User: Fold Guanine deaminase from Hippocampus comes.
Amino acid sequence: ANPDGAAETKRVFRGTLIHATREEAAKVLEDALLGVDADGKIAFIGEGKELHRLSKEFAFSPSSVIQLEKHEFFMPGMVDTHIHAPQYSYAGTALDMPLLDWLNTYTFPVESRFKDQNFAREVYTQVVKRTLRNGTTTACYFATIHTDSSLLLGHIADKLGQRALVGKVCMDRNNSVKHYKETIQESLEETRRFIAELLEKKYALVKPVVTPRFVLSCSSTLLGQLGQLAKNNNLHIQSHISENVEEVKIVKEMFPDSDSYTDVYHKHNLLTNKTVMAHGCYLSDEELALFRETGASLSHCPNSNISLCSGLLNVRNVLNHKVKLGLGTDVAGGYSASMLDAVRRALDTSKILTVQDPEHVTLTFEEVFRLATLGGSQALSLDSQIGNFEVGKDFDALRVNVTVPGGPIDLIEHDKPKIILEKFLNLGDDRNIVEVYVAGRKVVPSSEKLLY
Ligand code: GUN
Ligand code: FE
Assistant:
Protein backbone atom coordinates (compact mmCIF):
# COMPACT_ATOMS: atom_id res chain seq x y z
CA ALA A 1 0.00 0.00 0.00
CA ASN A 2 1.65 3.19 -1.15
CA PRO A 3 -0.20 6.37 -0.28
CA ASP A 4 1.29 8.13 -3.29
CA GLY A 5 -0.37 5.66 -5.59
CA ALA A 6 2.92 4.58 -7.14
CA ALA A 7 2.65 0.82 -6.69
CA GLU A 8 5.73 -0.92 -5.38
CA THR A 9 6.86 -3.73 -7.60
CA LYS A 10 7.58 -7.28 -6.69
CA ARG A 11 11.14 -7.72 -5.36
CA VAL A 12 13.38 -10.59 -4.32
CA PHE A 13 16.28 -10.17 -1.88
CA ARG A 14 19.15 -12.58 -1.29
CA GLY A 15 21.34 -12.56 1.80
CA THR A 16 21.29 -13.02 5.58
CA LEU A 17 18.01 -12.73 7.51
CA ILE A 18 17.86 -12.57 11.30
CA HIS A 19 14.51 -12.72 13.07
CA ALA A 20 12.73 -14.01 16.16
CA THR A 21 10.44 -17.00 16.08
CA ARG A 22 8.54 -18.76 18.85
CA GLU A 23 11.30 -21.36 19.08
CA GLU A 24 14.35 -19.17 18.62
CA ALA A 25 14.90 -15.62 19.90
CA ALA A 26 17.33 -14.74 17.10
CA LYS A 27 17.23 -17.18 14.21
CA VAL A 28 19.81 -16.71 11.47
CA LEU A 29 19.09 -17.68 7.85
CA GLU A 30 22.22 -17.37 5.73
CA ASP A 31 22.03 -16.98 1.97
CA ALA A 32 18.24 -16.79 2.13
CA LEU A 33 15.84 -15.66 -0.57
CA LEU A 34 12.95 -13.45 0.45
CA GLY A 35 10.24 -12.39 -1.99
CA VAL A 36 8.06 -9.34 -1.44
CA ASP A 37 4.82 -8.98 -3.38
CA ALA A 38 3.61 -5.75 -4.95
CA ASP A 39 1.18 -5.42 -2.00
CA GLY A 40 4.10 -5.37 0.45
CA LYS A 41 3.57 -8.84 1.86
CA ILE A 42 6.20 -11.56 2.15
CA ALA A 43 5.52 -13.95 -0.73
CA PHE A 44 8.11 -16.61 0.01
CA ILE A 45 11.24 -17.39 2.00
CA GLY A 46 13.70 -19.94 0.72
CA GLU A 47 17.34 -20.83 0.39
CA GLY A 48 19.74 -19.41 -2.17
CA LYS A 49 20.30 -22.84 -3.62
CA GLU A 50 16.58 -23.02 -4.47
CA LEU A 51 16.85 -19.96 -6.72
CA HIS A 52 16.02 -21.86 -9.89
CA ARG A 53 12.91 -23.57 -8.52
CA LEU A 54 11.63 -20.46 -6.72
CA SER A 55 12.14 -18.22 -9.74
CA LYS A 56 9.81 -20.51 -11.70
CA GLU A 57 7.25 -20.94 -8.95
CA PHE A 58 7.02 -17.21 -8.18
CA ALA A 59 7.74 -15.92 -11.68
CA PHE A 60 10.77 -13.70 -11.21
CA SER A 61 13.98 -13.46 -13.16
CA PRO A 62 17.09 -14.67 -11.26
CA SER A 63 18.98 -11.68 -12.67
CA SER A 64 16.59 -9.27 -10.92
CA VAL A 65 17.44 -10.57 -7.44
CA ILE A 66 18.79 -7.87 -5.11
CA GLN A 67 21.93 -9.21 -3.43
CA LEU A 68 22.81 -7.98 0.09
CA GLU A 69 26.44 -7.17 0.73
CA LYS A 70 28.71 -9.34 2.82
CA HIS A 71 28.18 -7.64 6.18
CA GLU A 72 24.55 -6.78 5.63
CA PHE A 73 21.44 -8.46 6.97
CA PHE A 74 17.71 -7.90 7.13
CA MET A 75 15.96 -7.88 10.49
CA PRO A 76 12.31 -7.11 11.24
CA GLY A 77 11.50 -3.46 11.87
CA MET A 78 11.46 -2.48 15.53
CA VAL A 79 8.20 -1.81 17.39
CA ASP A 80 8.11 1.09 19.86
CA THR A 81 5.19 0.09 22.06
CA HIS A 82 5.08 3.39 24.00
CA ILE A 83 6.13 6.87 22.92
CA HIS A 84 4.71 10.36 23.56
CA ALA A 85 4.96 12.26 20.26
CA PRO A 86 4.54 15.80 21.74
CA GLN A 87 7.23 15.15 24.34
CA TYR A 88 9.79 14.72 21.55
CA SER A 89 9.99 18.54 21.65
CA TYR A 90 11.95 18.35 24.93
CA ALA A 91 13.53 14.90 24.65
CA GLY A 92 16.99 14.90 26.18
CA THR A 93 16.15 17.52 28.78
CA ALA A 94 14.19 17.91 32.02
CA LEU A 95 15.09 14.62 33.71
CA ASP A 96 15.72 15.98 37.20
CA MET A 97 12.45 15.14 38.94
CA PRO A 98 10.36 12.13 39.88
CA LEU A 99 7.30 11.31 37.75
CA LEU A 100 4.50 13.35 39.32
CA ASP A 101 6.56 16.55 39.66
CA TRP A 102 7.97 15.99 36.17
CA LEU A 103 4.44 15.78 34.72
CA ASN A 104 3.31 18.99 36.43
CA THR A 105 6.50 20.95 35.82
CA TYR A 106 7.47 20.01 32.28
CA THR A 107 5.01 17.71 30.57
CA PHE A 108 1.61 19.33 30.98
CA PRO A 109 2.80 22.87 30.09
CA VAL A 110 4.46 21.56 26.90
CA GLU A 111 1.54 19.32 25.91
CA SER A 112 -0.90 22.21 26.34
CA ARG A 113 0.93 23.98 23.48
CA PHE A 114 -0.27 21.34 21.01
CA LYS A 115 -3.57 23.17 20.69
CA ASP A 116 -1.51 25.06 18.10
CA GLN A 117 -1.52 22.87 15.00
CA ASN A 118 1.51 24.56 13.47
CA PHE A 119 3.60 23.63 16.48
CA ALA A 120 2.12 20.12 16.41
CA ARG A 121 2.93 19.73 12.72
CA GLU A 122 6.54 20.71 13.27
CA VAL A 123 7.15 18.39 16.23
CA TYR A 124 5.14 15.46 14.87
CA THR A 125 6.99 15.58 11.56
CA GLN A 126 10.28 15.52 13.45
CA VAL A 127 9.35 12.60 15.69
CA VAL A 128 7.99 10.41 12.89
CA LYS A 129 11.03 11.10 10.69
CA ARG A 130 13.47 10.52 13.52
CA THR A 131 11.92 7.27 14.74
CA LEU A 132 11.69 5.88 11.19
CA ARG A 133 15.33 6.80 10.67
CA ASN A 134 16.14 4.91 13.88
CA GLY A 135 14.40 1.78 12.62
CA THR A 136 11.01 2.09 14.34
CA THR A 137 8.64 0.73 11.71
CA THR A 138 5.70 0.63 14.14
CA ALA A 139 5.04 3.16 16.91
CA CYS A 140 2.28 3.27 19.51
CA TYR A 141 1.85 6.99 20.17
CA PHE A 142 0.28 9.13 22.85
CA ALA A 143 -0.57 12.53 21.37
CA THR A 144 -2.28 15.19 23.56
CA ILE A 145 -5.89 16.01 24.49
CA HIS A 146 -6.27 18.01 21.24
CA THR A 147 -8.26 16.08 18.66
CA ASP A 148 -7.19 17.94 15.52
CA SER A 149 -3.49 17.82 16.39
CA SER A 150 -3.83 14.11 17.18
CA LEU A 151 -5.44 13.59 13.75
CA LEU A 152 -2.49 15.45 12.26
CA LEU A 153 -0.10 12.94 13.86
CA GLY A 154 -2.03 10.15 12.12
CA HIS A 155 -1.80 12.03 8.83
CA ILE A 156 1.96 12.55 9.17
CA ALA A 157 2.63 8.90 10.06
CA ASP A 158 0.61 7.87 7.00
CA LYS A 159 2.41 10.30 4.71
CA LEU A 160 5.88 9.30 5.87
CA GLY A 161 4.93 5.62 5.83
CA GLN A 162 5.16 4.60 9.48
CA ARG A 163 2.79 2.01 10.91
CA ALA A 164 1.19 3.64 13.93
CA LEU A 165 -1.36 3.39 16.67
CA VAL A 166 -2.33 6.94 17.62
CA GLY A 167 -4.14 7.99 20.78
CA LYS A 168 -5.84 11.25 21.63
CA VAL A 169 -5.06 11.55 25.33
CA CYS A 170 -7.99 11.62 27.75
CA MET A 171 -7.76 13.39 31.11
CA ASP A 172 -10.40 15.10 33.21
CA ARG A 173 -8.22 15.60 36.30
CA ASN A 174 -5.22 17.94 36.46
CA ASN A 175 -4.56 20.68 38.99
CA SER A 176 -1.32 22.07 37.67
CA VAL A 177 -1.97 23.51 34.20
CA LYS A 178 -5.29 25.27 34.07
CA HIS A 179 -6.56 24.50 30.59
CA TYR A 180 -4.86 21.20 30.07
CA LYS A 181 -7.81 18.99 30.91
CA GLU A 182 -11.28 18.13 29.63
CA THR A 183 -14.71 17.58 31.09
CA ILE A 184 -15.90 13.97 31.02
CA GLN A 185 -18.27 14.83 28.20
CA GLU A 186 -15.63 16.62 26.12
CA SER A 187 -13.22 13.75 26.58
CA LEU A 188 -15.76 11.18 25.39
CA GLU A 189 -17.15 13.23 22.52
CA GLU A 190 -13.72 14.20 21.27
CA THR A 191 -12.47 10.61 21.55
CA ARG A 192 -15.45 9.48 19.47
CA ARG A 193 -14.77 12.21 16.92
CA PHE A 194 -11.05 11.35 16.84
CA ILE A 195 -11.77 7.67 16.17
CA ALA A 196 -14.45 8.38 13.56
CA GLU A 197 -12.38 10.94 11.66
CA LEU A 198 -9.21 8.85 11.75
CA LEU A 199 -11.05 5.77 10.46
CA GLU A 200 -12.71 7.86 7.74
CA LYS A 201 -9.28 8.60 6.27
CA LYS A 202 -8.79 4.90 5.60
CA TYR A 203 -5.05 5.09 6.22
CA ALA A 204 -3.56 1.69 5.44
CA LEU A 205 -1.23 1.57 8.45
CA VAL A 206 -2.63 3.96 11.07
CA LYS A 207 -5.19 3.00 13.71
CA PRO A 208 -6.74 4.80 16.68
CA VAL A 209 -6.13 3.73 20.28
CA VAL A 210 -8.30 4.64 23.27
CA THR A 211 -5.97 6.50 25.65
CA PRO A 212 -6.90 7.29 29.25
CA ARG A 213 -3.64 8.92 30.42
CA PHE A 214 -3.49 6.99 33.71
CA VAL A 215 -5.64 6.53 36.79
CA LEU A 216 -4.46 9.76 38.44
CA SER A 217 -5.57 11.84 35.42
CA CYS A 218 -9.02 10.29 35.03
CA SER A 219 -12.19 10.07 37.07
CA SER A 220 -13.74 6.66 37.59
CA THR A 221 -16.65 7.68 35.34
CA LEU A 222 -14.32 8.61 32.48
CA LEU A 223 -12.31 5.38 32.84
CA GLY A 224 -15.51 3.33 32.76
CA GLN A 225 -16.92 5.11 29.71
CA LEU A 226 -13.66 4.74 27.81
CA GLY A 227 -13.58 1.04 28.69
CA GLN A 228 -17.12 0.70 27.35
CA LEU A 229 -16.27 2.60 24.17
CA ALA A 230 -13.25 0.40 23.48
CA LYS A 231 -15.23 -2.75 24.19
CA ASN A 232 -18.18 -1.81 21.95
CA ASN A 233 -15.87 -1.00 19.05
CA ASN A 234 -13.12 -3.60 19.61
CA LEU A 235 -10.46 -0.88 19.84
CA HIS A 236 -6.89 -0.83 21.06
CA ILE A 237 -6.31 0.65 24.54
CA GLN A 238 -3.16 2.15 26.06
CA SER A 239 -2.31 3.70 29.39
CA HIS A 240 0.28 3.73 32.19
CA ILE A 241 0.41 1.46 35.24
CA SER A 242 2.48 1.08 38.38
CA GLU A 243 5.39 3.22 37.22
CA ASN A 244 6.39 4.98 40.43
CA VAL A 245 5.96 4.27 44.17
CA GLU A 246 4.19 7.57 44.95
CA GLU A 247 1.75 7.05 42.05
CA VAL A 248 0.89 3.51 43.21
CA LYS A 249 0.28 4.78 46.76
CA ILE A 250 -2.15 7.49 45.62
CA VAL A 251 -4.05 5.08 43.35
CA LYS A 252 -4.53 2.72 46.31
CA GLU A 253 -5.84 5.61 48.44
CA MET A 254 -8.23 6.71 45.69
CA PHE A 255 -9.63 3.22 45.14
CA PRO A 256 -9.65 1.54 48.56
CA ASP A 257 -12.15 -1.06 47.35
CA SER A 258 -9.97 -2.27 44.51
CA ASP A 259 -7.51 -5.10 45.12
CA SER A 260 -4.73 -3.42 43.14
CA TYR A 261 -3.82 -0.84 40.50
CA THR A 262 -4.42 -3.54 37.87
CA ASP A 263 -7.81 -4.28 39.40
CA VAL A 264 -8.81 -0.60 38.97
CA TYR A 265 -8.29 -0.83 35.20
CA HIS A 266 -9.89 -4.29 35.11
CA LYS A 267 -13.03 -3.04 36.88
CA HIS A 268 -13.33 -0.29 34.26
CA ASN A 269 -13.16 -2.75 31.33
CA LEU A 270 -9.74 -1.46 30.32
CA LEU A 271 -7.81 -4.75 30.37
CA THR A 272 -8.35 -6.60 27.11
CA ASN A 273 -6.19 -8.51 24.65
CA LYS A 274 -5.78 -5.20 22.78
CA THR A 275 -4.53 -3.29 25.83
CA VAL A 276 -0.92 -2.20 26.31
CA MET A 277 0.12 -0.70 29.66
CA ALA A 278 3.43 1.12 30.05
CA HIS A 279 5.92 0.41 32.88
CA GLY A 280 4.40 -2.02 35.44
CA CYS A 281 7.50 -1.82 37.67
CA TYR A 282 5.60 -2.58 40.88
CA LEU A 283 3.03 -5.17 39.77
CA SER A 284 2.51 -8.13 42.09
CA ASP A 285 2.38 -11.71 40.85
CA GLU A 286 -1.42 -11.60 41.27
CA GLU A 287 -1.56 -8.54 39.03
CA LEU A 288 0.62 -10.23 36.43
CA ALA A 289 -1.77 -13.19 36.55
CA LEU A 290 -4.62 -10.79 35.75
CA PHE A 291 -2.66 -9.46 32.76
CA ARG A 292 -2.16 -13.01 31.59
CA GLU A 293 -5.85 -13.89 32.02
CA THR A 294 -7.13 -10.85 30.17
CA GLY A 295 -4.46 -10.95 27.45
CA ALA A 296 -3.32 -7.41 28.26
CA SER A 297 0.35 -6.63 27.65
CA LEU A 298 3.16 -4.54 29.12
CA SER A 299 5.49 -2.02 27.53
CA HIS A 300 8.90 -2.05 29.19
CA CYS A 301 10.41 1.46 29.09
CA PRO A 302 13.81 1.10 30.72
CA ASN A 303 15.32 4.46 29.80
CA SER A 304 12.35 6.27 31.34
CA ASN A 305 12.32 4.01 34.40
CA ILE A 306 15.96 4.91 35.06
CA SER A 307 15.85 8.57 33.95
CA LEU A 308 12.90 9.46 36.22
CA CYS A 309 14.23 7.14 38.97
CA SER A 310 10.93 5.28 38.74
CA GLY A 311 12.01 1.69 39.21
CA LEU A 312 13.39 -1.47 37.61
CA LEU A 313 10.97 -3.81 35.85
CA ASN A 314 11.79 -7.48 36.32
CA VAL A 315 11.18 -8.63 32.74
CA ARG A 316 12.20 -12.21 33.57
CA ASN A 317 9.36 -12.42 36.07
CA VAL A 318 6.90 -10.93 33.55
CA LEU A 319 7.97 -13.49 30.92
CA ASN A 320 7.70 -16.32 33.46
CA HIS A 321 4.08 -15.24 33.97
CA LYS A 322 3.58 -15.50 30.20
CA VAL A 323 2.46 -11.88 29.91
CA LYS A 324 3.01 -10.33 26.47
CA LEU A 325 5.75 -7.71 26.60
CA GLY A 326 7.38 -5.23 24.21
CA LEU A 327 9.88 -2.40 24.57
CA GLY A 328 9.11 1.32 24.57
CA THR A 329 11.20 4.46 24.47
CA ASP A 330 8.62 6.46 26.49
CA VAL A 331 9.99 9.70 25.05
CA ALA A 332 10.50 12.08 26.86
CA GLY A 333 10.59 10.32 30.25
CA GLY A 334 13.05 8.25 28.28
CA TYR A 335 15.49 10.65 26.63
CA SER A 336 16.20 8.58 23.52
CA ALA A 337 13.89 8.10 20.54
CA SER A 338 15.88 5.05 19.44
CA MET A 339 14.76 1.49 20.03
CA LEU A 340 18.42 0.46 19.99
CA ASP A 341 18.74 2.52 23.16
CA ALA A 342 15.70 0.70 24.61
CA VAL A 343 17.42 -2.61 23.82
CA ARG A 344 20.58 -1.52 25.67
CA ARG A 345 18.73 -0.11 28.69
CA ALA A 346 16.66 -3.31 28.90
CA LEU A 347 19.89 -5.31 29.05
CA ASP A 348 21.40 -2.90 31.60
CA THR A 349 18.28 -3.12 33.79
CA SER A 350 18.36 -6.90 33.70
CA LYS A 351 22.05 -6.92 34.64
CA ILE A 352 21.43 -4.54 37.56
CA LEU A 353 18.78 -6.99 38.82
CA THR A 354 21.40 -9.72 38.62
CA VAL A 355 23.84 -7.57 40.59
CA GLN A 356 21.16 -7.16 43.26
CA ASP A 357 20.24 -10.85 43.20
CA PRO A 358 22.67 -13.34 41.64
CA GLU A 359 19.81 -15.84 41.31
CA HIS A 360 18.12 -13.56 38.77
CA VAL A 361 18.42 -14.98 35.26
CA THR A 362 19.79 -12.14 33.10
CA LEU A 363 18.12 -11.47 29.75
CA THR A 364 20.25 -12.37 26.73
CA PHE A 365 20.76 -10.02 23.81
CA GLU A 366 18.81 -12.48 21.67
CA GLU A 367 15.84 -12.32 24.03
CA VAL A 368 15.88 -8.53 24.00
CA PHE A 369 16.10 -8.57 20.19
CA ARG A 370 12.91 -10.65 20.23
CA LEU A 371 11.22 -8.16 22.58
CA ALA A 372 12.10 -5.24 20.27
CA THR A 373 10.52 -6.97 17.27
CA LEU A 374 8.19 -9.96 17.71
CA GLY A 375 7.47 -9.12 21.38
CA GLY A 376 6.36 -5.63 20.44
CA SER A 377 4.10 -6.92 17.70
CA GLN A 378 2.46 -9.28 20.19
CA ALA A 379 2.11 -6.53 22.80
CA LEU A 380 0.20 -4.43 20.24
CA SER A 381 -1.82 -7.42 18.96
CA LEU A 382 -0.31 -6.95 15.52
CA ASP A 383 1.59 -10.23 15.41
CA SER A 384 -0.61 -11.68 12.68
CA GLN A 385 0.69 -8.87 10.42
CA ILE A 386 4.24 -8.01 11.57
CA GLY A 387 7.03 -8.95 14.00
CA ASN A 388 9.10 -11.41 12.00
CA PHE A 389 9.66 -12.84 8.53
CA GLU A 390 6.77 -15.19 7.86
CA VAL A 391 5.05 -15.72 4.55
CA GLY A 392 1.87 -13.60 4.45
CA LYS A 393 3.08 -10.99 6.94
CA ASP A 394 3.87 -7.44 5.83
CA PHE A 395 7.50 -6.79 4.92
CA ASP A 396 8.52 -4.39 7.73
CA ALA A 397 12.29 -4.63 7.74
CA LEU A 398 15.63 -2.95 8.35
CA ARG A 399 18.54 -3.44 5.99
CA VAL A 400 21.50 -3.28 8.36
CA ASN A 401 25.10 -2.75 7.23
CA VAL A 402 27.60 -2.93 10.07
CA THR A 403 30.53 -1.74 7.96
CA VAL A 404 29.27 1.60 6.65
CA PRO A 405 32.22 3.97 6.13
CA GLY A 406 32.61 6.29 9.10
CA GLY A 407 30.20 4.16 11.10
CA PRO A 408 30.49 3.15 14.76
CA ILE A 409 31.39 -0.55 14.34
CA ASP A 410 34.61 -2.37 13.51
CA LEU A 411 34.43 -5.98 12.44
CA ILE A 412 36.91 -8.79 12.56
CA GLU A 413 37.05 -10.61 9.25
CA HIS A 414 35.48 -13.88 10.43
CA ASP A 415 32.66 -12.40 12.54
CA LYS A 416 29.57 -14.58 12.20
CA PRO A 417 25.99 -13.22 11.82
CA LYS A 418 25.15 -13.63 15.53
CA ILE A 419 28.24 -11.63 16.49
CA ILE A 420 27.37 -9.04 13.85
CA LEU A 421 23.84 -8.74 15.29
CA GLU A 422 25.22 -8.41 18.81
CA LYS A 423 27.63 -5.66 17.73
CA PHE A 424 24.82 -3.83 15.92
CA LEU A 425 22.51 -3.98 18.95
CA ASN A 426 25.22 -2.79 21.35
CA LEU A 427 27.22 -0.40 19.17
CA GLY A 428 25.16 0.44 16.09
CA ASP A 429 23.13 3.52 15.24
CA ASP A 430 21.08 4.95 12.40
CA ARG A 431 24.14 5.08 10.12
CA ASN A 432 24.02 1.28 10.07
CA ILE A 433 20.32 1.21 9.13
CA VAL A 434 20.78 1.76 5.41
CA GLU A 435 17.17 1.06 4.39
CA VAL A 436 13.85 0.86 6.21
CA TYR A 437 10.79 -0.85 4.72
CA VAL A 438 7.23 -0.65 6.00
CA ALA A 439 4.69 -2.89 4.26
CA GLY A 440 7.16 -3.23 1.41
CA ARG A 441 7.54 0.51 0.89
CA LYS A 442 11.06 1.88 1.24
CA VAL A 443 10.62 4.76 3.68
CA VAL A 444 14.34 5.33 4.47
CA PRO A 445 16.08 6.76 2.61
CA SER A 446 12.91 8.63 1.79
CA SER A 447 12.30 9.53 -1.83
CA GLU A 448 9.97 12.41 -1.03
CA LYS A 449 9.97 15.36 1.30
CA LEU A 450 6.93 16.12 3.40
CA LEU A 451 5.88 19.53 2.18
CA TYR A 452 2.98 21.63 3.35
N1 GUN B 1 2.08 8.76 33.50
C1 GUN B 1 1.10 9.57 33.09
N2 GUN B 1 1.50 10.36 32.06
C2 GUN B 1 2.77 10.03 31.82
C3 GUN B 1 3.74 10.50 30.87
O1 GUN B 1 3.49 11.39 30.04
N3 GUN B 1 4.95 9.90 30.92
C4 GUN B 1 5.25 8.92 31.81
N4 GUN B 1 6.47 8.37 31.79
N5 GUN B 1 4.37 8.47 32.72
C5 GUN B 1 3.15 9.02 32.71
FE1 FE C 1 4.60 7.21 29.04
